[in-house]
Design a protein that fits this description.
The strands form three sheets. A four-stranded antiparallel beta sheet has the order 1-2-7-4, sandwiched between helices. A two-stranded parallel ribbon has the order 3-8. It has a two-stranded antiparallel sheet with strand order 5-6. It is about 35% helix and about 15% strand. The protein is globular. The chain has one domain (about 10-240). It is an alpha+beta fold and about 250 residues long. Its main location: cytoplasm. Its cofactor is FMN; FAD. One of its GO terms (cellular component) is cytoplasm. Belongs to the MMACHC family.
Amino acid sequence: MAASTDSVDSIRGLLDNCLTKLGFEVYPLKVGWYNSLLPATLRLSYPDDTLAVVVLSTPAMFEEAFLPFMEQRGCQGLSDPIDQCVRHHITSACFPEQKVDVRFDYELLPSRKPKFLAQTAAHVSGAAFYYQQSDVPDQPWAGKKMFGVCVHPRFGGWFAIRALLVFGDVTVGSELVQSLPPDCVPSREARIQLLEAFNFHWQDWSYRDIVPPVQTYSQKQKDYFFTPPAQRFALLKTWGFAVWFWVTDNQS
């Protein structure tokens, strides 16, 4: 179906109402904006005017969504607890009367390619600027491959791209105007610093502070993410949360 500005705003408003209070942000985009930057093998199989929404988690998500999720529901072992929480809240916010293709950042296609390129989606939606090697003139790395990273204008690197929602039956026209993300790392020197911190020293998280953030992860959240993934279930148990270890048909 075709969407008016009101219906696009309505979809975003409903998602905002469900997710913002839990520490998420939502940004609409057209599939064509995303596909225009990618080779055919990585494009989404939807018309260019199809509505999509990218969902980010902010530092508040840990305390506002994850810890209450663990308190109320616990988690099933063998699947990442954060992923379980994000899936629960995003799928709960979707609309049963509409066709929504929900793609999470951790999901892969049978080809082992990601279901969507999270940083590209964040960039074209205006959520966060995707700084890549090609954004640095006179590169100092002598042909070495440098991976790119998104920077949020308010949170720096203290956020995560969690999902892409594609509304397969909703098409939008010129009323949805693309807004470029703020270029908050404009100088060559700062971009070199950012990419080198991300590629060579990502463990110390210094790249996250490339711009002054309005909020960072709490100490408890830092403790969680500094803990190796295989040991996080044990950490959650020490915090008093329930963890069950069995396999069900809806394993991701």
